[in-house]
Amino acid sequence: SPGQTQNDRMGFVILVLANPHLSDTILTMNIEKPTLLLDTLRVRNNIHRMAEISRNQSVRFRPHFKTHQSIEIGEWFREENVRQITVSSVDMAMYFAGAGWSDILIAFPVNILQIRQINELAAMVHLGLLVESMETLEFLKENLTHGVDIWIKVDVGAHRTGIGWDQTDVIAELAHVISQSPRMVFRGLLTHAGHTYTARSRDEIRRISNDAVDKITNARNSLQEKGLAPVEVSIGDTPGCTLGVGLDRVDEIRPGNFVFYDLMQLQIGSCTPADIAAVVACPVVARHLERNELVLYGGAIHLSKEYLTLENGQHSYGAVCRLTPNGWGSIENGVWVKSLSQEHGIVRGPKEFIQQVKVGDVLAVVPVHSCLTVNLMKRYQTLTGETILTLEAGEW
After folding, report:
1. Half-sphere exposure for 309 (CA within 13 Å, toward CB)
2. What's the pTM?
């Protein structure tokens, strides 16, 4: 705990090794640099809860694996009878295909420059691709060598990618071309209501999510009226899926962030602190008592530059917790990561807190966006000391 001397910590380690019932406290032994800590019990609980939501609503659960990017964590989904997954890149699809996943949707607009790898994948697995332009479709018609499912990306308000939900003539034209291609099967309409991330309450999540489902189901109804059927609907944002909004009107859900949640999801209202399953343990390397600040070894290359705006108008790049023998404690009130540079993180907090923390202590930072943090950190350490690698670790 904060304030221990090196001798205290060594004595603690001896106690742990002598008592097998305290094996979960080995966590404190090996943290010497920024380390992504994983509470596997919370992860499994989060997976089970979302699987139950899908079962109760009778929708297909195709979780997005871009958050965890791990073959080992992916296996925990199989325990919930998950057989179909979502990824965000061709490389990620190759990685999970190599681990035995045989029904994979790449929920990112097709990059035609990777057609060779796409054809390799399509020969190996049941592959789904995402399109939003006639130009891409025409290329696929000429260059696909194996059959694939095609989903049309629809914009329901996030304004990142996709065809506007009310541009039904454009959507119908794409769907018609897909249906006429011998190597493409039209599956339906796909959206990600990413603007739920601007919500700041559960009621606001419900309002945005209901509106999103209304829009994409209206687009589906328009296609069916034009004689295009069947048309499935796939949605994917964690806030809306966590609250189960509109799931009775869709065919598939693709949430990903729910596996760990994070500070953004907590602010939105789609999780509780007890659901957050990953933090970054960061050593304290300096104190500036005159400014009520700490310097962490943990910067933008570990946490990303995602931030939230606090009530005082300042940016927060992460919340702060103390490590405990079994993981991490509650979020400290009034303590936050106020700025980041490449390796540095600057923590601001009340004088009493800053004075209690010593150089050499390790604090836990709750990331603003766990997906980006995982991609940067590349590996996990569980609370019992095991290492779990990701795709980005480059060891596959």
Report:
1. 3
2. 0.92
